[in-house]
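Dear Dr. V.,

Thank you for agreeing to look over these. As mentioned in my earlier message, I'm a first-year student in the group and I'm still getting used to reading structure tokens, so any feedback on how I've presented them would be very welcome. I ran two proteins. I've put each sequence directly above its structure. The first is here:
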Amino acid sequence: MRRKIIAGAATLLAAVGTFTFVVTRAEAATQTLQSLAAAGGRYFGSATDNPELTDTAYTAILGGGEFGQTTPGNAMKWDTIEPTQGTFNYTKGDAVVTFAQAHNLKVRGHTLVWHNQLPGWVSALPAAQLQAALENHITQEATHYKGKVFAWDVVNEPFNDDGTFRTSPFYNAMGSDYIADAFRTARAADPDAKLYINDYNTDGQGAKADAMYNLVKSLKAAGVPIDGVGFQAHLAIQYGFPTNMQANLQRFADLGVDVAITELDVRMVLPRDSAKDATQATYYNNVVKACVAVTRCVGITIWDYTDKYSWVPSTFSGQGAALPWDENLVKKPTAYDAIVTGLGGTVQSPSASVTSAGPSPSKSASSSPPAAGACTATYKIVGSWPGGFQGEVSVTGKAGWTVRWTFANGQTISQLWGGTLSQSGSAVTVTPASWNNTPPATFGFLASWNGTNALPTVACS
């Protein structure tokens, strides 16, 4: 399938995970990803596929209120729906729709026209017959699901990464006119569904996004019934976060179309560790906040919610851990909480009673009150999860400060921001970044821990 991703860097996000929280029954019932999104007039969804629907533990989460929308990953693609010309099989697509209807999930149809997952007969058709076959396929499928899907990815992935049109049987036969024809045909079959064009590597500004922008602009000018643009957002932490994502979404919205994050996941090179989890969380938070900041960004869909059914490992060797739930259907505190805060929610424990061997986030350790001209530093743990935690140190009283402490339990800092780190064994020394020299100053870090995470005694000079 896909994908290479453009470059950049990310700041790190606070992660709160495994402390004891008191969560009322009402709070647990109302704060879900869907409820938070709905408060802003959006949906939050997860893709799914037919094999997953036999996994009752999986479906309990998918249909349990966390999500308000689903996209069938494969069940509505051409090779499944029309495997031989003129013979249509809706069994798998209908199964997803039936599940969705039973669990109050809106369905995004995916996808009517794509260069991939085509049955062999499509490519074998003479060019003169391609348009009729395309129009018949769209008409039959969109009519069958009329009133059952709220939106269609009418055309999927029409561009190469350099912004040129992708070669496909449809492009070869009709040129780029196949796109307008597909939209007009879909509108005729289902006047009420929102009609989208969908692609990857268009999330941030660049040649491919520019090509998509110019196409949508020209389609609108020609009166083609296009209602939205889908941004897949298959991201990877080893590459950079997409350039100016919010501004990019906004410029499409300014054309008079809706925008949506349609296939979000954030993969990493395995194995997972706390630093990678934190960067992944930052990416999730950034995507969600970019959508929330754009009025016409109508929703966010993660590309299945659990690593158990992720497409990533089979496509990108040695990569995975891309989703907010792990392979055991357990929420990852970093990624999940990043989405929650991006949607404007407050971080809660994933259950009403979860404990940690680490200290409470409210606990902190301070150096002694400073003499005149000296400084003080306050160390606190702001988030903790199995094997890792995030710390924060606040400094007052003296420019050009130096903060020192010694870990008692073998903790090791993996990343630090706001200062320069030196760690030798358990002894830690931090001096300020140039922009963070004058108090009040704060620096933060990610570190590992195992079993015990005692607060150290800090000194500031």
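The second protein is here, in the same arrangement:
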Amino acid sequence: MDPRLRDLLVRGGGLVVRRDAIRVTPVWTIQAAWRAGRLVRLLPRVYGDAALIRDTTSDLPPLARVDPEVARRAVLAYADGRGALSGLSALDAWGLRQQPPGEPLYVDLPRGSGLRGRPHLVVRHRAGFAVEPPQVVVRGGLPVTRLDRTLVDCWSLLPPVDRLNPLIRAVNDRLTTPQRLVAALAEVPRTTDRAALCGLLDRLTAGCRSPLEIWGHDRVFTGPGMPAFTRQARVRVGARTIYLDMFAEAERVNVELDGAGTHADPAEREIDLRRDALLATVGILVVRFTHRRLVANPAEVRQETLAILAARRRLPMIR
């Protein structure tokens, strides 16, 4: 291979754009390296070192057979500064879901850019799109669509079973808020299963922070006799700040829903017991329901909760 072309590949992390190559070397050097099997065309005008191909026997397009990090850089080189990773590729960059092998990459571009989709690459053209804040941020050195828009866009791209987790994680990790997600959804009037997404955002706005809490909210802890629980209520106990899952303030009762994997570690169980004891020092009763019991006996859990709340109301200190 021409040493000048090799130098460009080294400086480009294994990638070279045709425009840059022909500035320092004749165009035939690219063609010769490609014919000799030393270069592979990943996208129009974007080439990679053939050594980057991980599976030489697969029928998948070359872009699907290089390391994901290399593939993302190749896509952005193809976009030539006009695009940002979006959809499932942006969700990967945000660390909320890893793209599996064979899944196409996504890039957003301004309408009228002239670039189109390729094998293993989905190009989406958006009116008024620009690779700058607030529409685009930099993650890991790469431009990606802002998180709230990314999550809304991915709702229709993910299978139903995988849709809730990225949204819930993003809110729990304080990467975004339900209000920002609602605003992003307003930007996308046509969304698959829009009613389901609106319902999820309503639950997140109400304070639900797990699929189990959403299930309990819909089937157990709302309706006749139930108070308006404050979810994720912030309580100060001495120097500590504690967040309560579902707090009935008048009755001073906090309902905690323990997930299926909760307390597998005895140390975690001890932490929760100490926390519950600390809350008791300020008159807050913690009532815990397991995942199994909540799902298997929702009516029983509901009646027990109502009985506990009624008993607390009869205590002189609660009146």
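From my reading of the second output: The mean pLDDT is 93. The longest strand covers residues 240-248. Does that match how you would interpret it?

Kind regards,
E.
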